[in-house]
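User: Please look over both lines:
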Amino acid sequence: MLNFNGKLLDNNLEFLDIQNRGLLYGDAVYEELRVVNGHIHFLEEHYLRLMSSMRILRMEIPMPFTMEFMEAEILKTIDTFQSSGAKCVKLLVYRDSKGTILPDKNTVAYVITVRDLKSPFFILDAQPYEVELFKDFYKSSNMLSTLNTNNTILNVVGSIFAAENDYDDCLLLNEQKSVVESLSGNLFLVNGTEIKTAPLSDGCLNGIVRKKLIEILSKLEEYSVKEESISPFELQKADELFIINSIEGIKSITKYRKKTYLNETAKKLVGKLNASARIEMNKN
């Protein structure tokens, strides 16, 4: 079951036509949200990021599209599932005009899809996770690169490269040859008590959990957090590398080339990330 403009439809129903702008031109943005027992984690942050992304892409935001409306539509879709527990919700918004590259109108439509998650908590996967630099193509260091859009061909090609070469993930570079992020989320580098992540100006995704983790780290006396460009040469000098995203939380990198990494800091931070989610849940 999915939600298409407020109507609940079967997954196998054909409802998108060949003129769809998201399909033809990549004219779409999306949010992936974690929902646990009817509570949407970091709802306000996701809503504000969606509104900001739509404004940047000059999409017309309908007056009824409030945060309360978005929450109600997500929960309405989830209620159609037989199972409870943790869900991953993808809310895709695209410009709903047909024809040429230049839209003849600026209205939007949306699709909400849902899938089950294994755990209601952010967990730290201790399985081996090897990465390599992806150098065939670069991510641009501009504002569009920070948005969640369906223009993800770089990630698709990078994922195929990783699979063909037996890597679990790849790290993306921008045109300045700085390490921006991984194919699956924002990258954090740990050196002693210093933790570093790429700035948005380098073209990394403006991740919700990235923002939350920076807020958490800024309040911890034992760590200092920096948003600075990351050189590829820093990777093999680091004590830890880990990746974060809104659905999985924190994933530790265990190997990059000949260097293997610890995950002690990541173990501490995943607990604090879960605590932040629980605090927000209790407020509501």
